[in-house]
Amino acid sequence: MYITRKRNDNLKGIIVSGAIYKSIPNWLSIFQSFVFKIMPKSNFQSMGLSKKQVINLMKSVDINLETDLAKVELPSLIICGEKDRINMKSSKEINKLIKNSNLQIIDNAGHEINKEQPLKFAEVLNNFIN
Q1: Residues 79, 124: contact at Cβ < 8 Å?
Q2: What's the alpha-carbon Rg for the chain, to the nearest Å?
Q3: For position 68, what pLDDT does the model report?
Q4: Whole-number Å distance between alpha carbons of 79 and 63
Q5: Other Cβ atoms closer than 10 A to 10
Q6: Stretch 78-96: mean pLDDT, rounded?
Q7: Domain with CATH 3.40.50.1820 in the chain
Q8: Per-residue pLDDT, 128
Q9: In terms of CATH, what superfamily is 1-22+64-129?
């Protein structure tokens, strides 16, 4: 979403899936770090990062895009799984902040919509792009 901060005439729209727009509370960050530390290293291999790199990356995230998102005028699609407790609130807030946005909630999907409902995810993307 950082790309929306600068004018880009080549950008025709924005698709946001499972995103946050401001830093998570400190207590949640601590809990998340704990969970990541007990997860096996194999869970991180598909991300192309080591377990340590993911933990350090999550510790370094300190953002607040509220003001920037309110300035976005591009057509925007926000996608969230109906069972995604982590990102549902944030997705609804992003939808409110971006004037020209549409929130699509995918049934029977959690945090990994593209894996849990790949055909529905592709359909929603295709409808937005076309």
Answers
A1: yes
A2: 16
A3: 83
A4: 20
A5: 4
A6: 93
A7: 1-22+64-129
A8: 97
A9: Alpha/Beta hydrolase fold, catalytic domain (3.40.50.1820)
* Average pLDDT of the residues in 43-59: 72
Are 36 and 51 in contact by the 8 Å Cβ rule? The answer is yes
- Name the residue with higher pLDDT: 30 or 23: 30
User: Rounded to whole angstroms, how far apart are CA atoms 70 and 58?
Assistant: 25
Which of 16, 51, 57 minimizes the C-alpha distance to 35? 51
Q: Where is pLDDT greater, at 68 or 129?
A: 129
